[in-house]
Automatic annotation (TrEMBL):
Membrane topology per record: Peripheral membrane protein
Domain C2: 609-736
Protein source organism: Pipistrellus kuhlii
Chain ranges of the PH domain: 16-124
Organism classification: Eukaryota, Metazoa, Chordata, Craniata, Vertebrata
Cofactor(s) listed in the protein's UniProt record: Ca(2+)
Name of protein: Phosphoinositide phospholipase C
Ranges of Acidic residues composition bias in the record: 441-470
Amino acid sequence: MASLLQGRLPSSQEVLLMQKGMMMRKVRTKNWKRLRYFKLQEDGMTVWHARQVGGRAKATFSISDVETVRKGHESELLRSLEEEFNLEQGFTIVFHGRRPNLDLVANSVEEAQIWIKGLQLLVDFVTNMDQKERLDQWLSDWFQRGDKNQDGRMSFHEVQRLLLLMNVEMEEEHAFQLFQAADTSQSDTLEGEEFIEFYKALTKRIEVQELFGNFSADGQKLTLLEFVDFLQEEQKEGEHASDLALALIDRYEPSESGKLRHVLSMDGFLSYLYSKDGDIFNPSCLPVYQDMTQPLNHYYINTSHNTYLVGDQLCGRSSVEGYIRALKRGCRCVEVDVWDGPNGEPVVYHGHTLTSRILFKEVVATLKKYAFQTSDYPVILSLENHCTWEQQGIIAQHLTEILGEQLLSTTLDGHLPTQLPSPEELRKKILVKGKKLQTLEEDLEEEEETESEVEGEEEPELESQFESEIQELSPRSKDKNEKKSKAILCPSLSALVVYTKTVSFYNFTHSREHYRFYELSSFSETKAKNLIKETGNEFVLHNAWQLSRVYPSGLRTDSSNYNPQEFWNAGCQMVAMNVQTAGLEMDICDGLFRQNGGCGYVLKPDFLRDSQSSFQPERPISPFKACTLLIQVISGQQLPKVDSTKEAAIVDPLVRVEIFGVRPDTARLETSYVENNGFNPYWGQTLCFQLLVPELAMLRFLVLDYNWRSRNDFIGQYTLPWTCMQQGYRHIHLLSKDGTSLHPASLFVHICMQEGLREEVES
């Protein structure tokens, strides 16, 4: 079967030549370079490779996996091989999520250009595909996998194998009936439209048909009034439901006559439910929708820890790729550990470890290029300075010369402010966070700076961090003063620190009496947890006027993460994460920052911005917005296999809903499992949660493959804030462990929020 996208695919000389195939060098390291034959398949959507022309080929990647294509000079690895290859012959394929880049070197500049232009053309096409085109691509991919002999047709034997690949267990007789019904040509094979009809028969949504019938008088269509009733009664759309109904019909009704008559067919109804408008995530929360004119300390800030590392904390590789990935996923605070390097050039790496080293000036150049590609709002460069006087001067020089106008080196108007500026005021600016020789007031008063000794608390080096972790865990050393770091600071570097001066933390009273609003402290996760437990309200009040940064324990040498929720509950703004490590903790972080345009800034709830707040994160009392949340988990669609290599293994899915928030709200409930059905499992079970502080709650929908012998296996997840959740019948589009789309895998749920706790609601 030709691709269902055939005729709509970009037609260009580059794409045609890619489909003929080319020999290129695949580069993994300076020493690992192998010739391979790469070929774009006829479907125009997948690239295969083999050791040689005519050799046994295997799938390398799908175009939908690709985020972008970079030229050779943009690749850290290819630049290191500049003496061996012309950089214009090289290019890098960058994938979504955390999948490593693919570096390739063509035999000529012309051949490299064919792949660079052709791939980018196809990537742009996939990025702009509509819902139907995405489904067509998905079906084409499955047909390619099921058509084992690649003859463009599918026999019943191949269909049976395909059903297993698609997580469908079906009696052979029933499968054959569906096969025969779709085989209108009576050729004993399925091709093209026949395969589409077979798929439609497989994916009939009985639960959606029943819902449609509940509101449709004739069972064939929803009139405008019937659709308005549905939007008001079930989707809780309110007074604007009439206007919304007309817009949705125009958007999702496939037939022109239906649009003219303002009616919605079953196909249109299903398209709406599966769209962004029918998504659990409120589309009004997708763009920047929050007030961005408040002081910086009123926002949660997407923050990366040891950004240069793409692996573990002891032997991992340092790379500018860590900065590119962090910035492109919306991080607005990145970390740089700078040390003296050879030839007078400062280097970046994790001190006292075997991690590799990169030049500081390359990090700054990367920052200049990528800082504002995802978001215009300010980037904070958390500078951990371990350099001597001379190389500190070089640091200041690189920051000033490379960043130019992007670097904020003085107050916005040249006057002393009374509070931190807003993200809006700091658009397209990079702020240096670090030690400072004197106060901002003295900076503005004096024209000439003098050298002096500075004392401040930063994240300790790994060696001393182990010691501090042990001290914090030891009750005998509870009252010991924390280790102070003292260093001679270069005035030119000190002058670049404006609104984010780092200072030591002693206690909250000391901070109130001695520190200014532009001074901030860093806390290890252990220290921050203890402060929240012992003096939670004081921490909330501290964060209402000053910035705080929390960083992972030095004991997390595997680059694991803590749950950021506990620190967000106390209003901590910069909760640093090892973004290279996927898992529950990063799901929660990604979930919070998915809103507000993914700009990296999320406005804290009002009770965490109030300088008179009485909020206790550990013991919230007098809830004024408490609610009961009812989640009916109805069904699942096209769930992926846990292990795609095991054709016969079909998943037994269950759904777990997890709530993360203040301690009393944190809970999890799950459905029973459905045996041997990952294609269209049905649960129809309702889970009930009670929330004291819903404004802080994060919801995580987790789909697992039940395994009675061991731990259940991960299938997919989706995490979002309670404040961004839509009520009614909604689809949840699942993500992988890596946070990438598992399209078209989804859950179908019904969400109901009721004011008050359950006892109050029932009474």
